[in-house]
Amino acid sequence: EVVLTQSPATLSLSPGERAALSCRASQSISTNLDWYQQRPGQAPRPLIYGASYRATGIPARFSGSGSGTDFTLTISSLEPEDFAVYYCQQRSHWITFGQGTRLEIK
Amino acid sequence: EVQLVESGGGLIQPGGSLRLSCAASGFIVTSNYMSWVRQAPGKEPEWVSVFFPGGGTNYADSVKGRFTISRDISKSMLYLQMNSLRDDDTAVYYCARGGWSTYFDLWGRGTLVTVSS
Question: Does A24 touch chain B (CB under 8 A)?
Fold first, then answer.
């Protein structure tokens, strides 16, 4: 099983700041890595697929990078609605999710 | 409108059975990977099962032999038959388009399954 480790577990930032969320895979997964945002009481929302491609309707302030085992989700300038939980997910060897990073308002 | 709507969740005793349904609209189910993904309270999502466009299926080890995924093309429906339910099956169950080789690009709102005596 591919284990995805996200860091940090919680990130405290202010609106307007830049956020960088990390996801590390226990083995190489090429670019078969996707990112989701989840707000309380809602289903996960796709943000990035294939490590770096924005999903439909996702603002340009969201970007993804990485390949192999190390991946990053970057939010260039935080908006109030961006404070949520973020999950990475791999689909290279079966399907697994990371444990999540909670982005909270500082 | 392109959407997925789940139903069928509820409170069930350990060892019981439940069937979840997912109504798809606005797209062709048979042309897509269709999955069930669950999320236990306070935990990350967990992929459960996938129905391939060509008709095959696959399951997570945690549910293999207990859960069965199926679809009704004429009704644009996806189902999840859950047998021998255990406490650790308690979760919100989401129907999602995608899985396996594609990302989950469309999610339903979920249906809550609570396994408890």
Answer: no
Using DSSP, state whether B65 is helix, strand or coil: coil
User: From the CA of B83, how many Å to the nearest CA of chain A?
Assistant: 22
- The size of chain A, in residues, is 106
Q: Is A90 on the interface with B (CB under 8 A)?
A: no
Residue B100 confidence (pLDDT): 85
Cis amide prior to B53 (ω within 30 degrees): no
* Pairing assessment for the beta strands A33-38 and A45-49 based on DSSP bridges: antiparallel
Q: Are A54 and A46 in contact (CB under 8 A)?
A: no
| pLDDT tens string B16-49 | 999 999 999 999 999 999 999 999 999 999 999 9
Taking 90 as the threshold, does the pLDDT of residue A66 lie above it?
yes
* DSSP H or E segment with residue A53: strand A53-54
pLDDT in tens, A88-99: 999 999 999 999
By the 8 A CB rule, do A39 and A27 touch? no
Count other Cβ atoms within 10 Å, centred on residue B75: 12
Given CB atoms, is B44 within the 8 Å cutoff of chain A? yes
Q: Which amino acid is at B14?
A: P
Residue A98 one-letter amino acid: G
If one counts every other C-beta atom within 10 angstroms of the C-beta of residue A91, the result is 23
